[in-house]
Sequence to fold (309 residues):
Amino acid sequence: MTAPLRSANDAQPTVPELNRRRLLGLAAAVPLTALPGWSSAQTSTFTPNVGQQGKDVIWVPTPDALVNRMLRMAQVTSNDFVVDLGSGDGKIVIAAARDFKARSLGVEFNADMVGLSRRNAQAAGVDQLARFEQGDIFTFDFTQATVVTMYLLPGLNLKLRPQLLRMRPGTRLVTHQFTMGSWEPDDSSNVENRPGYLWIVPAPVGGGWKMTTTDSAGAREATVRFTQAFQQVGGTVTMGTMDARIRAPRLSGDLLSFELMDERGTLRSYSGRVAGDRIEGNTRAVDGSEGRFFATRTGPGTPVDGGRD
Fold:
């Protein structure tokens, strides 16, 4: 008897066919990125274009030489936490981790750029130090940063300025190209015709203080009133019935220094650290004698920006 003919659906699969089906089933069940030897870069073809539109700005990368200069202006070390606002392809974040061993974070609204940045960090071998998050720079919490980097438009810098001024005194801010309105930078550089600017967040010192100075002559009290517009400070001091102007004041982060001539006609320099409503530090007279001083706030402070635009 002749065996009945089988349809293609009834035919017994050969060994090669069984192996092919098993591989197809594996590919359907297991993501390609989980297969050995498969690179995540193979799953993405996203390539950014210079000038592409973002949420708030177009994307233009900062030159590598200026990236390095900006991070050096901020004196980045392995003890820092660097946050780049609008991190693009991640080059500043990666450079901070690779060249300065700093923990770093990029905040970027474009999810494709975030994915690209993560792949770039992995390729550079710094994905343990350099992280990237998708988010809006105006709502993202970056208050723990010790260094903030930006390449944003002037209006966006001004929009961020109140939040930046509330950061911990001494936090360093570095921008490519654009400034902060009436807030003058503490330093600037120009690399390959591209400017970079540095600001150091100043402590709030504006307002009244009661100051006590102690040295070999004993303890003396005075009333001090500081004026402030960002890091620019001035002021007057009252000692008994005498008023005098503070000389050579300088504020850098939480470090405050100034000079004044006391009621006995002795010129004395003061150098201290601001910690909330207290200032404490050392004094030194022109004759070399040294002492200590501390001051406590006596009323409400004035705005750090001095009411400027």
Q: What stands out?
A: The radius of gyration is 30 Å. The chain has two domains: 64-200, 207-297.
